[in-house]
Amino acid sequence: MSHLPAPIAVSAGLRDGTRLFFHAITPDDRACIAQGFERLSAASRLSRFLRPMARLDAATLDYLSAVDGDRHLAVGASSSSDERVGLARCVRLEREPDTAEIAVTILDAWQRRGVAPVLVTQLARWADAVAIRKFRALFGYENRAVSRLLAGNGIAFAPDGSGMAQADIEISAILKAAAPASA
Ligand SMILES: CC(C)(COP(=O)(O)OP(=O)(O)OC[C@H]1O[C@@H](n2cnc3c(N)ncnc32)[C@H](O)[C@@H]1OP(=O)(O)O)[C@@H](O)C(=O)NCCC(=O)NCCS
Questions:
Q1: Which of 63, 73, 150, 168 has its CA 20 to 30 A from that of 117?
Q2: How confident is the model at residue 7 (pLDDT cuts 50, 70, 90)?
Q3: How far is CA 103 from CA 19, 47, 132, 166, 182, in A?
């Protein structure tokens, strides 16, 4: 899986015109994933991993790097100056193979600029090509950014009583709402 999978666009623009470039994450990106984690604020780490994370331990880094292009997909976004901006990944559920749990992390300096939807669209294109039909998002109910993203797209979610919430997002709906892939 050394090439960009065909469905992923090479680049896309943010609403302020900033151009981002996409790449398929591979196990070779292990060091990059570790570096990205080091740049994340404590609050973003907590939102992403749902527990305080001072360090990314080796087992978690192994898991995050084990991208195989079918069970586990991950797309990275970089700026035109090759700064890493964020990462969206999904992992197919064993018991529901047409559904994959999604996680998105945007570096703090790039948050609130509309990066997540653009990146998730690229992941959705790839997911669609390998017969993943739904993303499942599990997140802290207090996560305002995720709540706003989902609500803004008319996606329902509800608290589960333990501070978490869950939402299922149809890949077809993401692709329908997205602009056509650009080179
Ligand atoms: C959640 C996350 C991926 C959103 O990415 P993003 O690129 O910043 O998302 P957007 O810029 O599209 O913002 C989405 C909405 O949330 C709002 N928002 C973003 N950050 C916010 C914050 N900290 N507090 C309140 N609202 C916020 C934005 O204003 C926007 O709302 P709008 O569409 O009504 O204007 C990003 O904040 C992140 O990486 N957080 C840390 C990790 C995490 O929580 N991951 C999700 C669980 S796996």
A1: 63
A2: confident
A3: 22, 10, 15, 12, 24
